[in-house]
């Protein structure tokens, strides 16, 4: 299946992140992550975005701002479910 962009957020110094839902099987997550990290062909990378030159793993500190945004979105989403 194709990857779907559900939301785009502009977070400086982070670049484009791909986030998997909690329900994704761990083995599928690992295979997907490993596959993205191995892509080196510019023609393939340009299908993601014209400026993509590769994928890399980020440490927890680099991802903290993304986690803050996601927590805020989850809180917003849960308020709508309570109505």
Number of H/I helices: 3
Q: Give me the strand/helix succession.
A: HHH
In terms of structural class, how would the helical and strand content be classed? mainly alpha
The chain-level mean pLDDT equals: 79
Summarize the structure in words.
The chain contains 3 helices and no strands. The protein is mostly helical and 83 residues long. It is globular and about 40 Å long.
Keywords summarizing the entry:
globular, 83 residues, mainly alpha, single chain
Tell me briefly what this model is.
With 83 residues, the protein is an all-alpha fold.
Topology:
Blueprint: H1 26-38, H2 42-45, H3 60-82
